[in-house]
């Protein structure tokens, strides 16, 4: 059997097209013509002997074979990019200190540190998973070089790398949570129970402010110093929580605001912040890996969005 060498450029166009939702948008991202990108897709279909995509309304949908290839394509491209980075990057030596918001600690941190360590084995990385306020304080005091944190409205546009929708979360199983019922008499309705993080917490403030603006009574039912504790309380039905759809455990589900009379929530910017000192090559290379890891992990619509959270949205 003669083995076929898949075309990496075609694979990149394929992945970009699926992430973007159309090959026309993929062509814009890649700086190529739409016809050239379509030709690359045709080449992949010829190489694999399978149809990879099909029309679904105005968008694209993967066939079973396309879904299988997409998984392999991401891994092949990731390994290719890692190899190029390791070969072309200067031989760096030193250390860098990275802080990551705890929502991304379990998913992004391992991928980022592993890739960076393989590309730059002589660089020592010190990582910290923490709350937003803690990361910003350590960044300002020079105890961190980079921090992946929620934007509080002060980040520069170039620092915003994603915009994640906020959502209400409740137990995966329907439970007897005394949720606010739209149109109910406020004197007869139970206040909405909330599971929150200890103050100061930006998302806690956003949740309470939006509930106040919509005239929905609430109470703090559970307070935790860590995200894990808040997840456990929410899963147990002690209260609902406000977070993003990313990274929550299977024991929780996203609540439909209209079904529970809850306010719809804005998106929240995710920023990659740097310490107030001159850039250095180590930080630059680590920042590039973080950006790529998030682009690979988050839905394309979140990384493409230009929406930015500001205090006026609260």
UniProtKB/TrEMBL annotation:
Q: Does the keyword Repeat apply?
A: no
List the Pfam families: HTH_1 (PF00126), LysR_substrate (PF03466)
Q: Which PROSITE patterns does the record cross-reference, listed alphabetically? A: HTH_LYSR
* Coiled-coil positions: none
Domain (HTH lysR-type) spans 6-63
What UniProt keywords apply to this chain's record, in alphabetical order? DNA-binding, Transcription, Transcription regulation
Q: Which GO terms describe its molecular function?
A: DNA binding; DNA-binding transcription factor activity
Q: What PANTHER family does the record tag this protein with? A: HTH-TYPE TRANSCRIPTIONAL REGULATOR LRHA-RELATED (PTHR30579:SF7), TRANSCRIPTIONAL REGULATOR (PTHR30579)
Family assignment? Belongs to the LysR transcriptional regulatory family.
Q: What is this protein called?
A: LysR family transcriptional regulator
Biological source species: Thalassospira profundimaris
